[in-house]
Design goal:
- Chain A is an alpha+beta fold.
- Chain A has a single domain (about 10-75), classed as 2-Layer Sandwich (Translation Initiation Factor IF3), CATH 3.30.110.40.
- Chain A has two helices and four strands; from the N terminus they run βαβαββ.
- In chain A, a hairpin with a 2-residue loop joins strand 3 and strand 4.
- In chain A, helix 1 packs parallel to helix 2 (about 45-55).
- Chain A is globular and about 30 Å long.
- Chain B has one domain (about 10-125): DsrEFH-like (Hypothetical Protein Ychn, Chain: A, 3-Layer(aba) Sandwich).
- Chain B contains four helices and five strands.
- In chain B, helix 1 (about 25-40) packs parallel to helix 2.
- Chain B is globular, with a radius of gyration of 14 Å.
- The chains are: A alpha+beta, B alpha/beta.
- At the A-B interface, helix 2 of A face strand 4 and helix 4 of B.
Amino acid sequence: MQTEFRPNRILDALGLYCPEPVFRTRVELDRMAVGEVLEVFADDPAAEEDIKSLVRRTGNDVLRLKKDGSVLQFLIRKVR
Amino acid sequence: MKVRKLSEEKNILYVQTSGVDTPERTYAPFILATTAVAMGLDATIYFVIKGVSVVKRGEAEKIKLGDFPSLKEIMDQAVKAGVKLEVCEQSCMLLGLGRGDFVEDAKVVGAATLNDRLLDADAVMCF
C-alpha cells in the first residue's frame, strides 16, 4: 500500500533548463521546515538525475518520483 | 553526515570535452572505459562542451581512424560491456547545436549530476 504524501509547497519548474530546476528546488527547501514535503514539477530531462543528486547530497529524501510523458513529478521530504 | 556512494565498486569517470572536430581524441575514453569494465570497475563517460557532438545521432558513424573500427563500433562495444554514457544537454545550446537527438544509450543529465559523479569517482580522466 502506497502512503499518500500531501505537499506543503509546490514548485513549478516546467520549461526551465539545467541548472534552474536544481537551484529553485534548493531555494524552496531552504524556506521549509524539517518534516515538510515539497512537490516539484520539471520537464528538463537533466532534472531527473540532478534533483536526485541535490536531494541526496543535501541529506533529504525523495519520497516519490513519477513520470508522465516528459513531465517529472518529485515529492521531496526535508529531513535536515 | 557521510554521503553514501551509489556503488561499492571502484569507479572511473571519463569526461569527454573534445568533439568530432578532433576525432583522434574521441576513441580513448570508450576503449579505456570498456577495459575498466573488463577489470571489474564501473565506468561512466560524461560528454560536455564539444564532447556532446560525439553522441549526437549519426556522428560516430562518420569517424574511422587508421586501422581502428569506426567510432560507432567502439561506442556500441562500450555500451554492451556496461559503460554508462551521460550527456550535458545544455552544451548543445552553448554550441548552437539542436537540443537532444542523442544516441539512445546516452542519458541526459546536468550540472548537479556531474558534480556528484566527480565526488563519487575513484579516478577522473578528461579528454
